[in-house]
Amino acid sequence: FRALCTRDKLLAAFGTRPVRLSTANTFSYRKVDVPFQHYVEQLLQPQDPTRLGSDTLYFFGDNNFTEWGPLFQHYVPPPFRLPGTSAAYSFGIAGPGSGVPFHWHGPGFSEVIFGRKGAHPAAPLDLHPAVCPQALYFPERWWHATLNLDTSVFISTFLG
């Protein structure tokens, strides 16, 4: 699966397909549809620290697993399970410095295919921010924020 998630392979397979981008801000729900190639070549940039998260569009959350089916048929999720839950997947690609502010939801985990994620820089120092090089479990209603330290390809699995 990782070998299929390189920039060149994703562009060759999905470049002309539309993707829905959203802002990563609790108070902004802006959605924009663009061809995947436009996102990768024009919008997948490092976050400008002088701009608000609501100005930054990134590919996460609103994706169609039917259209991306040829890629996801090769995905083998880690063996993390909770009794009585089923998995819902969300594929994402984001630039360095982008992320999601503090929030909570049901249990799940985030798996990094390429790149690195870390805790948000505004996190209080006593929270001991962690760098997530591969996968990180988050319990139900556990407050967390994410920061893409590099251009990152990732899948979040929500257990519900």
Automatic annotation (TrEMBL):
Coiled coil: none annotated. GO terms for cellular component: nucleus. SUPFAM superfamilies: Clavaminate synthase-like. Transmembrane segments: none annotated. Gene3D superfamilies: Cupin. GO terms for molecular function: cis-regulatory region sequence-specific DNA binding. Signal peptide: none annotated. This is JMJD8 protein. It comes from Urocolius indicus (Red-faced mousebird).
